[in-house]
Task: structure prediction
Amino acid sequence: MPVIMVEGRQKQVEKGTTFEALAKEYQERYPEKITLVVFNSKMQELSKRVEKDGVLTFLTVKNDSGHKTYCRTAQMMLVKAVRDILGNEAKVNIEFLLGNGYYCFVRGTDAPIDDALAAKVEARMREMQQQDLPITKKTYPRDTAIEMFSRQGMDDKVKLFHYRRGSTINVYALDGFYDYFYGYMMPRTGNVDLFEVKAYRDGLLLLLPTKEEPTKILPHRDSPMLFEQLMLSNAWGKLTGVETVGDLNDQICGGSFNDLVLVEEALQERRIAEIARQVYEREGVKIVMIAGPSSSGKTTFANRLCIQLRTFGLKPHIISMDNYFVNREKTPIDEDGNYDFDVLEALDLELFSDDMNDLLDGEEVELPVFDFKLGKRVYRGNFLKLGEEDILVIEGIHGLNPRCLEDLPEDAAFRIYISALTSLNIDAHNRIPTSDVRLIRRMVRDARTRNYDARGTIAGWKKVRRGEEINIFPYQDNADAVFNSTIVYELTVLKQYAEPLLFSVPSGTPEYVEAKRLLKFLDYVVGADTTALPMNSICREFVGGGCFAI
Result:
C-alpha cells in the first residue's frame, strides 16, 4: 500500500485511491473548496489516483490554478446547458472576463438572449449540479479528436488542432457532450455549487466566486468603458479575421503576417489619435494621467500619445511618478520585510501636488529624478515652465487614484486607464487570461533589461498581482478613456523570447509548475520573428529594438 505525506503526517492508502476521495476526507479542514492536488511536485486533477508513495498538497479555489479549475468546469456546464436548451446548433463563445463574470456570446440561434434565457440556463446548470454528473477525461489520437469536434460543429477546435504538435488530445465528456479545455477540470458537476447567470449586453454573464472571496458571489460591478474597449477589440478581431489562435496561425502560415501587423498597428494608432483628440477638445486640460497594471505598455503608450498630441499643436512633457518616490529610509515595508514601492505611501504626494500646482500657476519648477542606486531624489537642473500649448503627460500606477490629484483643479486633468485586455482566445471555450499575457511580457522585458531569470519574475508575480488588486483595479472606472494595449499577434513574437526563459526554470522549484503551464500555452501558437514590427510598436517595449527610451 502506498504511503503518502499529507499535512506533515504519513498516511497509508489503498493503491488506486482517487485524490477526490482524499479531498472529501480532508475538506472539512479547509474553509474553501478543494479543486486540485499537487502530488510529488506535479499538479493533478482530483480524478487521478494514488499509485505510489508521495507528498500530497491540496489546492483550493483560493489558489490561482485551483480557482481557474473551478471556473473552467462551470464554463463547460454553461456551454452544455445552452446546447440542451437551444439545441446543438447554438454555439457559445466565452469572450472575456468582466469583473467577476465571464461574458459569453451565443450564436447560431434566433432565440432572444434575455433574462428568460439566462434563468433557464442557470436552472439547467443547477440541475446538473444536483445530479452530480461525472466529467470524464479520455485521451484520443489527434485525428480522431479532430473528427469528433468536426461532427459537433466546433470548427475553431478543428483549426486549433491542425497545428497541434502532439499526437494525442485530452477530451472531456459531460453527459454526451465532448469538449476540449486548456487546463484542469473538476471530476463532477456537483463540485460547482456557486454561480449565477445573467443577461448582459446581448450576451450572458456567468458570475463566479473570486479568489479573494471564494465562498460567495459578489454583485457584478458594471464597467461600461472597459466593456466597450473589449468589444472594440473583438470587432478588430473580426475585421482582421483573427478571433482565435487557429486563425492567427493560419495567417502566419499563409503568408499574411506582415499585413496583419500593419493593420493591427494602424488600428492602435487610430485609437491613440482618438484619445489625443479627446484631450485636445476637453477645455482646460493641462495634465494627462496614465495608469495601468504591470506590463501594460504605459511608457510606449505615453510616448505615442505625445506624438499625437503634437499633431494638435500641443507641447507634451512626460513625467514619471516614480521620480516622486520618498527617499529610501521612508519607503514602506511589506509583510515580508521588503520595500513596497507599489503602495501610495511610497510616493511623496505633498511634493508632487506642490510641483503640479506651481506648474499650473505658471511658475518655473525644477523637477526631481529618483536615483535608484542612491535611493533618494536628486535634482539635475531639469526646469520646466508651462506655456499655453504645454501639457503634462504623467505616467504611474496610481494615476487614477483621486488622492493624487485631490489638491489640483478637477477640470485640469484627463485620466487614461491602459491595460492588455486580451481578446484573442485559444478557441471559443478557452480564453487567454489577460494576466498570462502580461506575465509573459514582463518576463521577456525583465530578462532583457534587468537580467532577471524567468523563475524570479514568476516568483514575484503574485505580489505584483496583489498590489494591482489593491492599488489599480479599484480606480479604473475613474478614467476618462480606456486604451487596450494588447496586440492580436504579440504572442507569436513573444514566444521566441519566452520559451528559452521558461525552459530554464529548474524542476522541483515552486515556479516550475507555472513555467510548464505557460510553455504548454505557448505551444498552441506558431512563432513569428520581429522583422515586421514597427519601431514604435508596444510590443517593442518588451522584446527591444524600439525607438523610445524605455
